[in-house]
Every structure is written in C-alpha cells, then in structure tokens.
Design goal:
One of its GO terms (biological process) is methylation. It catalyses: L-arginyl-[protein] + S-adenosyl-L-methionine = N(omega)-methyl-L-arginyl-[protein] + S-adenosyl-L-homocysteine + H(+); L-arginyl-[protein] + 2 S-adenosyl-L-methionine = N(omega),N(omega)-dimethyl-L-arginyl-[protein] + 2 S-adenosyl-L-homocysteine + 2 H(+). This is type I protein arginine methyltransferase. One of its GO terms (molecular function) is histone methyltransferase activity. The chain is 29% helix and 20% strand. By secondary structure, it is an alpha+beta fold. Among the domains are: 99 residues, no CATH class; 300 residues, Rossmann fold (3-Layer(aba) Sandwich), CATH 3.40.50. The strands form 5 sheets. Strands 8, 9, 10, 12, 15 and 16 form a 6-stranded antiparallel beta sheet that branches. Helix 4 packs antiparallel against helix 5.
Length: 590
C-alpha cells in the first residue's frame, strides 16, 4: 500500500465565507521546523558534483549540449521513463552525442532494470520527481481558475477542506501504525507486521518472491543446461523447424526474439546476449509475464507472436505453477487461429502428458523408512514420517515399473485453460508381474509438434539407439555446425554468425516432430520421477488390478506447490480374491 499525502496550509472558511485562519493547524506545526539537507548532484556525463540537481542539468546543457528536460518532453517520457533515461546514462556512461537521435522506442526506456538508481538517493531523480510537470497543463489550470465564479470557488475550497481532513485522519492512522511497527521491532524478535497487514487485518500471501529469487542463481541454470535430454530436445525442435522461426516473432526463448524472466538471471541473460552479438535479434525483458509489456513497436495489440517457447515444466510436471504464466502469455500474445492457419501460433512444447504406474521400490523403503528404525542403536522412526507425506524426487530403474502405464492427464498446451490444471482422474493399472507395490510412480512426456496439432492418444516418445540400447528421448549433440540462419527475407543478407547454417539448408529441412520422456526408460533428466511412497505396501501377482482416482490441485498454502491425493483399491480378478477396501493417501509436491 502507498499513500501520497500533500500537506499545505488551507484557510478555514466559515459559513459566511469569512477567513478564520488565525488558528494554527497542528499539521503545520509538525513540519514548521523541517530543513532539507543540502545535496550534491553529479553531472550525467562527468564525475563532477554540483550544489543542486538544477545546476547539474544546466552544466550538462551548456557544456555537453544535452538538455535533459527538453529531450524528455520531446520523447513524451513520463516519470518512469525519465528515471530510466537517467539511470541508463549513468550506468552505461553514455555520451551526449549518443543520445541525439533518441526516438522514444528504445528498449531501455521500457526496461525496469533502469528503475533502480545507479546513485543512491540521486538528487536528480528526487528533484525530477517533484519538478517534472507539463507547462501546458499548468497554463490550462490557470485558465480554468480565471473562469471560476466566487460561488464555485467556495465549493472548491470546502471540498479541499474535506480532503485535508481525510488526509489528517490518514496521518493519524499512519502515526499509530508507525508506533506499532517500532514497538514490534523493539520488543520482539518475531516477524514485524507488514503495513498492509496492519491496515487490512491480514497479510497478503507471497508465493512468488522466494521462487523467483531461487532462479536468480546460476547453479540451477547449470543443472538445467546440463540436462542433455531437456536442452537437446528444445534445440533439435528449433533447429529442425526453421520455417517456424524465419522472419517470425518468437517469445521466451525470426524477426525478433523476446526472452522474458522474472528472476535476476535476466541480467546475466542480457549480458550473454550482448557478449554473443545478438542484441539486434534478442530482447531480454525482466518481469512477470502477467505485468510486462512488449517494447514499441511490438506493444501494438494487433501484433502477435508466432511461436512461444518456454521450459515451464516442474516436478510432477505441474509443480511451480509456471504453466499458468505461459498460458497468460499465450492468450496475450500468441497469433490466434485463422482460415489460413487453423491452429494459429505454435506453443513449444505443444503437448505434455502425465503418466503413472505401479513401482516396486524396496531400496527407497530401506533408505527412507527402515533406516530410522535403528540409527546406531537408537529408534528414530518419527523421522520417517515425512517420506509418506512428501513426494520423493528420484530416478528409478526401468525394472522398478511393475504395471502398465496410464495417462493421468493430457495437456494440449495450445488450448488448455488454467482452471483445468486442478483435476481428478480415474485410473486402472494392471500388474505385469508378481511383486510388491511400494509406490505409485509419476512422470511426464513432452511433444513439440511444428503445426501445434494434437498427438494421438497412443503416441509414445521417439525411440533412438544410444550405445546399443533403445531408450526414450532423442539425444543430439549441438555443435558449431548447428544453428538457425539469422537472415531476413526482405532485408538482404546479414553477416552469418558462428554456428549458423546456410539458408539453402534451411529450405531443405522438413518439419520435424520432437519428443522426450522423463520416465525410468529415458536417460535421466533433472526432473527425475515423482515417487509416492505408500504407508501400506501390497503384494500383486501378474494380472492384479489397482483402480482408483488421482486428485491434483494447487496447494492452499502455496500456489506453486501441489497437493496430491490418491484413492486406490486392489483386486485380483480371476484368482478368487475379493477387492480390498479403498485406501486414501495424501502427498505434497514441494
């Protein structure tokens, strides 16, 4: 919450219109001894200080020929635009000559990175936040004031009095809140209440800050990039389908690429783009996709992107709830279906499936459960409780799978809605051999289809032979010979960057579908598999059937986590054994 309170001396007007301003308003007394500390302001272009911001601007105008206020007015910059311009100049040490041809559509004027002051408490920003005003607006206000009649003037003054009274009440409220904040911090080591909590009686839950902060560190990105199945599948799809990218608008990763990330890793991404000479092709935008706008000229609502590429998948596919944001981007910016293109723009991946099976996992039981029964002679069985309540993220061997595979949820990314991401789905699993079921196993498959069409229900991820063994997920090497030519049709040839192929080779390429799996039969991915360890393992024989319902929804306490509930019953049809009663077990994916 933010409140802007402007406090000024307003005469008291009695019913007869007379001035009774002899009494002193207590608010005036509050501020009468206020003295502003002298500040020194640096020039925009030199390491030289001046006694005030206005003198610094005057120096820049006289010596460097850069009239900041004039340029800002010419470009139509609002307060935030002017702040970005100041910080852009200071951070990048731009010369005045480089700013002569600004058009107002430069990306940095819309980049929230430049809202952070380069100089702490920059007097130029502080002064401008007060003094930036439109002379034309002031002239209009004066003209209107001259036309106001005495009667109307009294009404306006009365309205101002009511506003002042409300402001005074807000000041009293803030003073009380301030005392609570100071008291809480001085007397307790517990969390200090937020202002909104004190005002509204409750604190708004924040599920995002920690999540985005965790992606601001490079370790997690190294893990994802080192996942060869993940990275090479995305690369193969893009490199095998140049017709999707040539002269096209691409989001998130050709005409232009917009890369969007809400975490601070966007700063390094922007530097990586610069270091590889791709600034004219890729624009990195930091911010939540629900709030950001594309820079001009792409902020025109009629302009849509042709491809949205996003690696949003989490554990159990839906953990982290990033798909919700991807669907927002799809609905805001993806080219809609048309007569010429029934599907419209393409999502990559275009479809994902959650797959479940029964699993025999005695090693996990030993590691997570029985270990705690005797820890150097001590009984610590209470420590094993979390293994039954929290889903385990493990990589299982193919032989751990003890049943057929069942599709729990099919997600056509081209058209699925956020409401459909909370779901319940019945399932039926048949044991393929005798054994003991210790766990339910969940993983996902992903498809990249060039035209965005649905894959058939019986589709399986592509199979390739690696080192003599068939495995799911195609794995490729990305070397200097792979890439997408950065040549535009209408703009003539451009320098070929390292790692690009010739346009002729692009023309020869046929649309190619790419898929991968995160199941036990695949090369291990950083997603591994999600394992739901059962409190009551049960024996099965070949042909035993396990039926039930799988419930999945966002957690009520953290929307980025998942609450899973599995209802199941076991029957041994044909073997004279009656079905067992329904068992219910709940899990959290977090």
């Amino acid at each position: 919450m933010a409140m802007n309170l402007q406090i000024s001396s307003v005469p008291n007007i009695d019913d007869d219109g007379s001035d009774s301003s002899e009494s002193v308003d207590p608010v005036d007394e509050t501020w009468e001894d206020w003295e502003e500390d002298p500040t020194h302001c640096y020039s925009l272009f030199e390491d030289v200080q001046f006694p005030s911001a206005s003198l610094a601007l005057e120096h820049d105008r006289n010596k460097h020929g850069f009239d900041f206020n004039s340029v800002s007015s010419k470009l139509g910059l609002d307060f935030h635009g002017r702040v970005r311009l100041i910080n852009y100049i200071r951070k990048n040490k731009v010369s005045a000559a480089e700013l002569l041809n600004l058009s107002g559509s430069e990306v940095f004027l819309f980049d929230n990175e430049y809202l952070k002051p380069v100089i702490e408490d920059d007097p130029l920003i502080s002064m401008e936040s007060i003094d930036w005003s439109d002379d034309d607006d002031e002239k209009k206000i004066r003209a209107l004031a001259n036309d106001i009649s005495p009667g109307t003037s009294k009404l306006i003054v009365a309205e101002l009095e009511r506003d002042l009274l409300a402001a005074n009440q807000q000041i009293s409220q803030l003073k009380s809140i301030g005392q609570q904040l100071v008291g809480a911090s001085a007397t307790s080591s517990s969390k200090v209440p937020m202002l909104s909590e004190l005002l509204d009686g409750k604190q708004e839950r924040d599920d995002d800050s920690h999540y985005f902060e965790s992606y601001g560190y490079q370790e997690i990105h190294a893990i994802m990039l080192q996942d060869s199945v993940r990275t090479s599948s995305y690369a193969k799809f893009l490199l095998s389908n140049p017709q999707l990218l040539r002269d096209k608008l691409v989001m998130d990763v050709r005409k232009h690429v917009f890369a969007i990330d809400a975490s601070d890793i966007a700063l390094k991404a922007r530097q990586n783009v610069k270091d590889n000479g791709l600034e004219d092709v890729i624009t990195v935008i930091q911010g939540k996709v629900e709030r950001i706008s594309l820079p001009p000229p792409y902020n025109d609502p009629s302009i849509r992107v042709d491809v949205i590429v996003s690696e949003w998948m989490g554990y159990a596919l839906l953990y982290e709830s990033m798909l919700d944001s991807v669907l927002v981007a799809r609905d805001r910016w993806l080219r809609p279906p048309s007569v010429d293109s029934p599907v419209g723009g393409v999502m990559a991946p275009s479809q994902c499936r959650m797959v479940m099976s029964l699993a025999e996992t005695p090693d996990l039981v030993k590691e997570k459960i029985t270990f705690w029964e005797d820890v150097y002679g001590f009984k610590m069985t209470c420590m094993a409780e979390d293994a039954y309540g929290d889903a385990l993220i493990e990589h299982l061997k193919p032989e751990a799978v003890i049943s057929n595979l069942c599709i729990i949820k099919d997600l056509p990314i081209q058209r699925i809605t956020p409401r459909q991401l909370d779901f319940s789905q019945s399932f039926s699993l048949v044991a393929t051999r005798d054994g003991v079921v210790h766990s339910f196993l969940l993983y996902f498959d992903a498809w990249f289809v060039p035209d965005g069409s649905d894959v058939p229900p019986d589709a399986t991820p592509s199979l390739v032979e690696v080192e003599g063994n068939f495995i799911t997920a195609d794995v490729m090497r990305i070397g200097a010979g792979a890439g997408i030519n950065a040549q535009a049709k209408d703009n003539g040839p451009r320098p070929t960057r390292k790692g690009s192929v010739m346009a002729e080779k692009e023309k020869e390429a046929k649309p190619a579908e790419v898929s991968f799996s995160t199941g036990p039969a695949s090369l291990c991915t950083h997603w591994k598999q999600t394992v739901f360890l059962l409190r009551a393992p049960f024996k099965v024989i070949e042909g035993s059937k396990v039926t039930g319902t799988f419930h999945c929804r966002k957690s009520e306490t953290n929307s980025r986590e998942l609450d899973i509930e599995i209802h199941y019953a076991v029957s041994h049809t044909g073997f004279g054994v009656q079905p067992r009663e329904m068992t219910v077990q709940s899990f959290k994916v977090r």
